[in-house]
Amino acid sequence: MPSDSIDRSDQLGETHPVYATSLNNLAQVYQHLGKYDLAEPLMVKAVEIDKNALGDESPDYAIDLNNLATLYQKMGRFDLALPLMLRATEIDRINLGEDNPDYAIILNNLAQLYQDMGIYEKAEPLLLQSTEIDRLIYGEEHPVMAIRYGNLGLYYLEYGRYEEAEQLLLRAREIDKASLGEDHPNYARDLNNLAAENPSREMMAA
Q1: If 0-12 CB within 10 Å is exposed, 13-18 middle and 19+ buried, where does residue 203 land?
Q2: What is the pLDDT at residue 13?
Q3: Kind plus residue range of the DSSP H or E element containing 51
């Protein structure tokens, strides 16, 4: 229960990693509510605690950096987000290796940051790498692959590569339909992505 977590944090003190976790959890709530000004100092404090307690090569420290980078990304503060995300990616590469699904996730996060920054040439190889990692781990028909193909398809859509985008978005829909069914929210997401692809193509033709 949340109260138990808070009580435990109080008992362990404000320099313990458990307290950092509590700060991150609260910060995530504020971030979800759009209260970025309240989330930021909590995440910054969590980064400091875990760096001091666990070291700056710890996987938990990498998670903190990723969380803070994602917050700055949502705030449009890309100059702060990018070095944090790059550092988190490097820590995960060292600790997890390049064939780990969690490493694929942070590669995808970094790619999305580059997309938001308009640096598309750096986003594509990361998206391709994360897709290939997960394909080797999960196989071609796993729902995770629908997410990867969807992300890559949306990247191509944003970059104006409509035929490649359509193929990937259709493949994502096919995977989710077969593995999750047509009533699953992920299948609805795939349909929405495909709906976005058609107007974009029509706008280019106009």
Answers
A1: exposed
A2: 87
A3: helix 36-54
